């Protein structure tokens, strides 16, 4: 038996595993994932172009979340727009259609496979609710059906995207784009080379998975680019972890430092603990050294731990989830004079504007910005409005909510406890926290140990809420509305005076009353109320 | 020129499409309201789509098949709606058989979209 695990933002954000087979998920979180920068720097948008007779008003390089959103909005506002999108096949040969990471190899397939896993868990739970299965031992999951359904959905989204672009008169160029000078992009298409000149350019190339520089990684490793379309691994099964109790459950996560670096560490540890309880093994502070193919086709992975001791083991698959690198080099941004920051591949833009005034960037390519689809979409749309619609509204990268789709989900918005303490000093911060018991967990006697939430607030006055963190079922659905509340300056006072919806899990946020400072037990009373 | 076919009703369609030997070529299926006695469809949207589709068919792969389906009355429409292969929600609808590509409603009136359906290769 096996399961799909979906770790959002552990940098890979999804993991599958195989029937009776070990599935090593290798992860190091060595690059900065997201940082919610507080500084909003001002800049003058709308430079005057020195390329008055350019062919286009806007050429977008990268047809993913950010690029498409900007392109469509710009075209709505009357601009003449072209979008270049080209997917270079992964080392394993996987490729896909128009729409970028989220649609093809990110959020969408990840969420669908997460749902498949949750349904498996629901089947298990439903037995204690009285559902009877004629042949319970024979309930099994068919990977190929899932994979085909997911891929069919993706293909229909690819098509709808093409129709939308055509309908909005955005020209789609299926080619790899490269700057030749600040005003010209060269597209390498099937039909040959083509040059496009434009008044403005938008770099929206996103990123691709990183591989470690170790022998065997490229030949034998897979990444999130490949996992959602794996061709029928022979006897693969895929079920939720709930199914796997007592079964030889054998996925291993190798972590270079700590899981979910950059997130609230208490919450991250609870997420990891929940996974461990479901049978996933963690190898912390380990670094992979080599991958070798064995005569029987299995993979021998060697690694060292923090004391530099060497280990190795045999796995069926190794999946690298080591973060992503932005594709600026391939696009030769240097030829346009665009500077890169940090690790040398991301772009440090101010209000999405690069150091070259008529060249902009949105999405995962941006330095120290959250790598999330809605962030790219909103930033792209707002930028198009500033360029072509007389708007002056800038993107607010603060208080962006996100969710990690691990079996028990983790949703959060705003500051982590660590960041709040650092920014305001622990004396000025109040942390409310609680363990809670989802009503529907009682009957199937599901593990409630890790159902936990926390509110990070300022200590004085009405206690302005700075961050909210929630681990439990449907965490994404729970946290979204609170993200809006935080934007409206939510305080602990207001939260406590909000009447809950009973019985839900989201209402637990309205019932907070125990502070960490008080040292009181955050566990709920034994009975429900 | 594409090979044109014409069927009426759900059962006829199922039988036809099952027996059609497209020799590996693309099959487009166009669903529209049945014709009235005067030869026009009762569905205005279908009327508007018709000339557009006819014109754009000239750009389609000459080896492709084009199946013109008059869906018939309400009950028959429901059958087309429930069939996972057709999932018909709106009239008119044009689909690339066994593929995700489809155009629905007023999309079928837009030459640039119909053109995309008939010419995109994937
Ligand atoms: C496994 C996984 C799960 C995820 N889950 C979530 C989630 O649950 N929620 C969430 O909000 N976010 C999630 N994300 C993140 C989300 O997918 C990204 O933040 C988002 O796609 C970024 O959009 P973008 O526009 O920057 O780039 P992308 O969507 O990556 O699009 C860039 C496009 O540009 C193309 N391109 C690159 N260079 C060129 C060039 N030179 N010429 C032409 N085309 C080029 C690429 O092929 C690609 O199609 C996930 C990511 C991954 C990997």
TrEMBL record, chain A:
Protein name: Thioredoxin reductase 1, mitochondrial
GO terms of biological process kind: cell redox homeostasis; cellular response to oxidative stress; glutathione metabolic process
NCBIfam families for this protein: TGR
Domain FAD/NAD(P)-binding: 56-379
Disulphide-bonded residues: 102-107
Residues given in the record as NAD(+) binding sites: 323
An MF annotation (GO) of this entry: flavin adenine dinucleotide binding
Organism per entry: Exocentrus adspersus
GO cellular component, one term: cytosol
Disulfide bond among keywords: yes
Residues engaged in binding FAD: 111, 177, 364
Segments passing through the bilayer: none
Domain (Pyridine nucleotide-disulphide oxidoreductase dimerisation) ranges: 400-510
Cofactor(s) needed by this chain: FAD
Co-factor remark: Binds 1 FAD per subunit.
Automatic annotation (TrEMBL), chain B:
Gene Ontology MF terms in the entry: protein-disulfide reductase [NAD(P)H] activity
Pfam short name (any one): TXD17-like_Trx
Ranges for domain Thioredoxin: 7-120
InterPro entries: Thioredoxin-like_sf (IPR036249), TXNDC17-like (IPR045108), TXNDC17_dom (IPR010357)
Domain of life, source organism: Eukaryota
Gene3D superfamilies: Glutaredoxin
Record-level GO cellular component terms: cytosol
Family: Belongs to the thioredoxin family.
Identification of the protein by name: Thioredoxin domain-containing protein 17
């Amino acid at each position: 038996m096996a399961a799909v695990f979906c770790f959002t933002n552990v940098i890979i954000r999804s993991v599958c595993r195989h029937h009776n087979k070990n599935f090593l998920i290798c992860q190091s979180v060595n690059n900065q994932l997201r940082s919610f920068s507080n500084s909003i720097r001002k800049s003058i948008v709308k430079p005057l172009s020195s390329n008055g007779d350019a062919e286009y008003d806007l050429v977008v390089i990268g047809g993913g979340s950010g690029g498409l959103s900007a392109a469509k909005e710009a075209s709505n506002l009357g601009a003449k727009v072209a979008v270049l999108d080209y997917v270079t096949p992964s080392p394993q040969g996987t490729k896909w259609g128009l729409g970028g990471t989220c649609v093809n190899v990110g959020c969408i397939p990840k969420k669908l496979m997460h749902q498949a896993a949750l349904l498996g868990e629901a089947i298990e739970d439903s037995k204690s609710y009285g559902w009877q299965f004629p042949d319970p031992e024979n309930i099994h999951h068919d990977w190929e059906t899932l994979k085909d359904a997911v891929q069919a959905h993706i293909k229909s989204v690819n098509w709808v995207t093409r129709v939308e672009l055509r309908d909005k008169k955005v020209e789609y160029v299926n080619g790899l784009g490269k700057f030749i000078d600040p005003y010209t992009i060269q597209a390498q298409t099937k039909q040959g080379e083509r040059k496009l000149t434009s008044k403005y350019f938008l770099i929206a190339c996103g990123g691709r998975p990183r591989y470690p520089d170790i022998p065997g990684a490229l030949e034998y490793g897979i990444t999130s680019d490949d996992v959602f379309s794996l061709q029928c691994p022979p006897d693969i099964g895929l079920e939720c972890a709930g199914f796997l109790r007592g079964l030889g459950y054998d996925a291993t996560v190798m972590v270079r430092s700590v899981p979910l670096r950059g997130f609230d560490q208490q919450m991250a540890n609870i997420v990891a603990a929940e996974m461990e309880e479901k049978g996933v093994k963690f190898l912390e502070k380990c670094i992979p050294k080599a991958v070798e193919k064995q005569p029987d086709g299995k993979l021998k992975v060697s690694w060292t731990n923090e004391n530099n001791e060497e280990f190795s083991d045999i796995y069926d698959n190794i999946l690298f989830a080591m973060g992503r690198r932005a594709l600026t080099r391939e696009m030769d941004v240097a030829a346009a004079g665009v500077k890169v920051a940090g690790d040398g591949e991301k772009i440090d833009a101010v209000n999405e504007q690069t150091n070259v005034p008529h060249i902009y960037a949105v999405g995962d390519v941006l330095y120290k910005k959250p790598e999330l689809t809605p962030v790219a979409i909103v930033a792209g749309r707002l930028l198009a409005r500033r360029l072509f619609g007389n708007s002056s509204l800038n993107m607010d990268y603060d208080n962006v909510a996100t969710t990690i789709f691990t079996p028990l989900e983790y949703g959060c918005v705003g500051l982590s406890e660590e960041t709040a303490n650092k920014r305001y000093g622990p004396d000025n911060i109040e942390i409310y926290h609680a363990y809670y018991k989802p009503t529907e967990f009682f009957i199937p006697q599901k593990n409630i140990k890790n159902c936990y939430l926390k509110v990070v607030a300022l200590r004085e006055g009405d206690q302005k809420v700075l961050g909210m963190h929630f681990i439990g079922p449907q965490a994404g659905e729970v946290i979204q509305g609170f993200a809006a509340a935080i934007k409206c300056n939510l305080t602990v006072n207001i939260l406590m005076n909000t009447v809950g919806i009973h019985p839900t899990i989201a209402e637990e946020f309205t019932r907070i009353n125990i502070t960490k400072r008080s040292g009181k037990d955050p566990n709920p009373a034994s009975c429900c109320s | 020129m594409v090979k044109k076919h014409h069927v009426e009703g759900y059962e006829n369609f199922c039988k036809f499409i099952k027996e059609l030997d497209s020799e590996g070529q693309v099959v487009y299926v166009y669903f529209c309201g049945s014709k009235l006695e005067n030869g026009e469809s009762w569905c205005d949207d279908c009327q508007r789509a018709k000339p557009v589709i006819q014109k754009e068919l000239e750009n389609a792969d000459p080896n492709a098949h084009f199946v013109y389906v008059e869906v018939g009355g309400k009950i028959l429409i429901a059958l087309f709606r429930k069939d996972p292969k057709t999932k018909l929600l709106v009239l008119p609808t044009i689909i690339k058989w066994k593929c995700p590509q489809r155009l629905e409603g007023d999309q079928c009136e837009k030459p640039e979209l119909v053109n995309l359906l008939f010419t995109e290769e994937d």
